[in-house]
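Subject: mismatched residue count in predicted assembly?

I count 684 residues in my input, but I want to confirm that the predicted structure covers every chain. Input:
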Amino acid sequence: MNKNNTTTDKHRSSAAITLDNVAKIAGVSAITVSRAINTPDKVAPETLKKVREAIDKTGYVPNLLAGGLASRSSKLIAAIVPSIANLVYSSTIRLFSKSLSKAGYQVILGDSGYPEVLEEELVRTILSRRPDGIFLTGVDHSPSCRNLLLAANIPIVETWDLTPSPLDIVVGFNHMDVGHAVAKFILSKKYNKVGFVTANDARALLRQRSTLEILSQSGVSDIYATTVPAPTSLEYGRIGAKQIIEEGFDSGVIFCTSDTLAQGVLAEIQSRNISIPDTIAVIGFGDQVFAAHTYPALTTVRIDRERIGQEAADALLARIQKRPVKNKIIDIGFSIIEREST
Amino acid sequence: MNKNNTTTDKHRSSAAITLDNVAKIAGVSAITVSRAINTPDKVAPETLKKVREAIDKTGYVPNLLAGGLASRSSKLIAAIVPSIANLVYSSTIRLFSKSLSKAGYQVILGDSGYPEVLEEELVRTILSRRPDGIFLTGVDHSPSCRNLLLAANIPIVETWDLTPSPLDIVVGFNHMDVGHAVAKFILSKKYNKVGFVTANDARALLRQRSTLEILSQSGVSDIYATTVPAPTSLEYGRIGAKQIIEEGFDSGVIFCTSDTLAQGVLAEIQSRNISIPDTIAVIGFGDQVFAAHTYPALTTVRIDRERIGQEAADALLARIQKRPVKNKIIDIGFSIIEREST
DNA sequence: CACAGAAATGACAGCGCTGTCACAGCACCA
DNA sequence: TGGTGCTGTGACAGCGCTGTCATTTCTGTG
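Triage response: the counts match. Full output below for your records.
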């Protein structure tokens, strides 16, 4: 309330504490305070002590807007995800943030899940903060976005998918391979009919299509499929299951493109008093934390979401610190986890 | 690749496009470009057109670090939440971000859910970005945090709880009232035994305690309670239910401090082939999107999480724009939604 | 037709920090 | 004893933008 304004000089009001104030109090120059904060090993121990005391006394909080402008490094990493309210992405982002914060970077999130906001607009907004790197979900971007992104001249990591020609680095897995693997799993179990509850999302649809591909090659033709809106929810899982059951699906296996959908499918089946997995089996996707604990426990495709975040952070840091990046294409793979629902 | 660097003047490399570049191309001064971007109605239509063309041609993206430094307004709002991977908070944050982005503000998230990171440290980091306002979850902050926050001299909104003495503004509901209301609901249903699966979190514990208070006043003494770690998960719901059932709880109602826990409780009960709600009834908390669609549909306490985000954004904007704030304490209330699980 | 007042534009300084270069002081070795 | 190289510190300019005030041009009115 009162210990501000050492110099009531200017017409601008309520002077916040600046580097200069701290420097004056510590009896050193501003640049020394800067070094004491950012590269303390380049400052003599006694000087450091004086500076630290001055900082404590004043309650100085550095201004990273100014720092970023001067150093041309904002210490900000942008991440664009389809929805922060989707657990699928949040566990990845959580590890991503955590790894980066250890290195002194902060993550700023952009939510691309609002159809009314153009992706390009979002990217512009984000880039105006001058992030030192950017995390993207997916590998499909509009040409204008690609241009913006490339012009920004910062490290980029695309995630959740794979492409032979990433903008910079890509960390993900092959959705077609997932589809094929699930198809083989289904075939090995000799289910007579196969149902699909698929979210209306490019990657989910690809997984479904590639499952179907192998299935029809192998002569499995009793297929019941429905597409539900993205993002997935338990409700849409129930609706999807209801649909295919009413179309005549009465036994076999249902492959859902997310564990959340699968959870809804389980509920719908149970509400009809149909036994799982004896009459209808269910396969999810993602291996969310809850998948192992539903009743019955869910057979699903495990994706190491945390690892995506970790690898993305590592790759970005390597690029930023101009260390060599071993691999521009990082495939984290997947595995089928068999539990009680099949 | 080539249309950069109009002036290869300095030793600094790879010149990005700046306001000055755009101004030169448009044949106006830098400040006019600034106005064309920020206050277009103060610029003549023809000038605006010229400037817009120059911006399009160059692909100029404003630098908000510089802008924020000069204008002393970062257009950034900080939000501190226990975990971005928790849907309870993410739906609030989503609406909060959305409302603010319409007004030209961006939200930067801080995750306070890592016990190894001190809250004070988090707040410092966030404040170093010079946000124009801050969103806090909960009303309990360490004294050092309060000081930091107050010294920042920016609008603050605390959420998810109520207090007679907010730092600035508070948007939430009364957890004790929730407990009382649930107790009355339980009494009205005449359950003989009451179980609690409670997350180890201050607000959840308060809800449980206040439920218990009314219950014991009314002579209900057959109580089975267990506390599970926060954040809540389906798994802990199952574990909690298992515990109280093994302690002898065989009929009545279980009140869970989150819908996620309740979902786990449902699963555990079903896995034991106990009928819901005839033998054991279940009450959740939060009314998450899935609550209406579980099997059986979950009776729960509805909290309008989106409204918390909306009101918080509105209040913050009012403060920032120096409009009067009608109410510093905003109680959004709650309601009990009765479904099939009771 | 002169002049007040609004509308449109520009010049300039400075927001708070850091990169760069310069320099003082000191230990060490031939 | 002089030079070499290191450590610690400071002066200075400038990052890219906007607040402020000054200036010019364009209305409309009596």
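The mean pLDDT of chain B is 92. Marking this ticket as 'not a bug'.
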